[in-house]
Design brief:
The protein is an all-alpha fold. It has 15 helices and four strands. Helices cover 73% and strands 2% of the residues. It has a two-stranded antiparallel sheet. 37% of the residues are buried.
Length: 347
């Protein structure tokens, strides 16, 4: 009896989906993504769009933290760069919304590369503090450069249109968000099949050994910051055109911590973990809010406690995963798949 996976050719070994079960699961997922907006209510479409943007941002952060081992607490700031750049280009300079998105992503990559310069000398907690400085500096610029960003006032972005059709509706922008998420997923998966991706992983595992093997640490660390910031900038630009209002309060330190929690709970160094963590951290507050509203009739005071309950559960979930499953939801999903794939010798 065959128990396990055995490759008989290089083509099988290099395939993105190596088994029939993986291909079937992928086909089911694609079918669900394509059919979901046609039967989902507006509320669930909004949640799906929020998850899609979170997935893109989480993948971007995972490239830097999970795959390259460079700690970052500046996620919210880099998303702000992407959002404000796209919004300013469209609102003030008349750039088409679809063209402003890649431009904003490229500019965010430049900003991320600049703030990645200390990564050659710093690592761990010290690098985290450096990226935290980026968070503070960028938000200070956003809130004080009134002539460009509008300061603390919201930046109103023109309604995105394509062939005369408004694109910022939940249904229409769903295709933009999830189409981008799929492209970023394919790009990321293939990135870590190249020598660039393998260099990132080598730096994460042991940067001194990577340097001895001939990997230019400075070059590849900056490249990791650039690629990560590019993807994060995409998420910010999409958010700007989806909401058509850009406000600095959407990109505070809380956002950076939330995205860091996404990849910790989902699984560091895993694209699947980015999906699972983004979905979990987006749906959890919605679930708590809905439960609070359902209990409002019996406990009227609970409505005012919901924000504090969310923070408490948020912290508790992170602690539980760090203690009991440090590799996140991706490890749980992998264990489930392994059990059935290796049965009856799953031990």
């Amino acid at each position: 009896m065959i128990s396990g996976i055995y490759y008989t050719s290089y083509e099988q070994d290099m395939a993105l989906r190596k088994t029939p079960a993986q291909r079937i699961r992928l086909a089911i997922l694609i079918l669900l993504l394509l059919s979901f907006p046609f039967f989902a209510s507006r509320y669930y479409l909004t949640l799906a769009n929020q998850i899609g943007i979170a997935v893109i941002g989480a993948i971007g952060l995972n490239i830097l933290v999970g795959y390259t081992g460079q700690i970052s607490l500046g996620q919210g700031a880099f998303m702000a760069v992407g959002a404000y750049t796209a919004g300013i280009l469209t609102a003030h300079y008349g750039v088409p919304w679809w063209a402003s998105i890649p431009v904003a992503a490229l500019f965010t990559a430049l900003v991320g590369t600049f703030f990645g310069l200390p990564s050659l000398r710093l690592k761990g907690l010290y690098l985290a503090i450096a990226t935290l400085a980026a968070q503070v500096i960028i938000l200070w610029i956003v809130t004080h450069w009134k002539a460009v960003t509008g300061g603390v006032e919201a930046l109103v972005v023109p309604t995105p249109k394509l062939f005369g059709v408004k694109m910022n509706t939940d249904f229409n922008f769903y295709w933009v968000i999830w189409g981008t998420a799929v492209l970023i997923t394919i790009m990321t998966v293939n990135l870590f099949r190249t020598h660039y991706g393998r260099a990132f992983v080598a730096i994460r595992d042991q940067d001194i050994a990577a340097s001895v093997m001939g990997i230019d640490l400075f070059r590849y660390k900056l490249l990791a910051f650039a690629i990560s910031s590019f993807v994060v900038g995409l998420a910010g630009a999409l958010l700007a055109h989806y909401r058509t209002i850009v406000n600095w309060e959407r990109f505070t330190m809380d956002v950076s911590v939330t995205y860091l929690a996404m990849i910790i709970i989902g699984g560091l160094g895993s694209v699947t973990g980015s999906y699972l963590g983004a979905a979990f951290m987006t749906l959890l507050p919605a679930l708590i809010t809905n439960l609070g509203r359902a209990m409002k009739a019996s406990f009227p005071a609970i409505e005012g406690l919901i924000p504090f309950i969310q923070l408490a559960i948020f912290g508790l979930v992170i602690i539980i995963f760090l203690i009991f499953e440090s590799e996140g939801l991706n490890k749980i999903w992998k264990d489930i798949k392994d059990y059935f794939r290796l049965w009856p010798f799953s031990y």
